[in-house]
Amino acid sequence: QVQLVESGGGLGRAGESLRFSCAASGSIFRINAMGWYRQAPGKERELVAAMPSGGTTKYADSVKGRFTISRDDAKNTVYLQMNSLKPEDTAVYYCNANLGTAYSRGVYYHEYWGQGTQVTVSS
């Protein structure tokens, strides 16, 4: 069984910084990608940043130049450094991972989500 456990985030003021981390644990054979999504009240969940293994990192246009995603594959952990926060960054942030678990019949890949963490940015 695989779990994604988020930590960090919380409250901040415009212009300040916050940092998230998300650790994947359990029966992990290979991680294809890890990333972060967010959902603001009344809006759909949207991609914030994604980091595929061996691929190109993606950022939402709204966070480019302010947020940085990084991974520590030895720890199966993804980080999100959020700088120059804006009130419109207020949302619930979710860690996401696409990873494979090995079974006797082969490796099967699934998508997993963290528990979600509220970020509130005041002006």
Write the SSE topology:
Blueprint: E1 2-8, E2 10-13, E3 18-26, E4 30-39, E5 46-52, E6 58-59, E7 67-72, E8 77-82, E9 91-103, E10 106-113, E11 117-122
Parallel strand pairs: 2-11
Antiparallel strand pairs: 1-3, 3-8, 4-5, 4-9, 5-6, 7-8, 9-10, 9-11
Word description of this protein:
The protein has 123 residues and is an all-beta fold. Helices cover 0% and strands 63% of the residues. It contains no helices and eleven strands. It has strands spanning 2-8, 10-13, 18-26, 30-39, 46-52, 58-59, 67-72, 77-82, 91-103, 106-113, 117-122. The strands form two sheets. Strands 2, 4, 5, 6, 9, 10 and 11 form a seven-stranded mixed β-sheet that branches. Strands 1-3-8-7 form a four-stranded antiparallel β-sheet, with no helix packed on it. The termini are far apart. The mean pLDDT is 95.
By helix and strand content, what is the structural category? mainly beta
Q: What is the CA-based Rg, rounded?
A: 15 Å
Shape: elongated
Q: Tell me the strand percentage band.
A: over 45%
Number of helices: 0
> What's the N-to-C terminus distance?
41 Å
In N-to-C order, the SSE pattern is: EEEEEEEEEEE
Major β-sheet annotation: 7 strands, mixed
Give unreliable regions as ranges. Answer: none
Number of separate strands: 11
Q: Mean pLDDT, nearest integer?
A: 95
Helix content: under 10%
Would you summarize the structure shown here?
The chain is mostly beta strands. 0% of the residues lie in helices and 63% in strands. The radius of gyration is 15 Å and the shape is elongated.
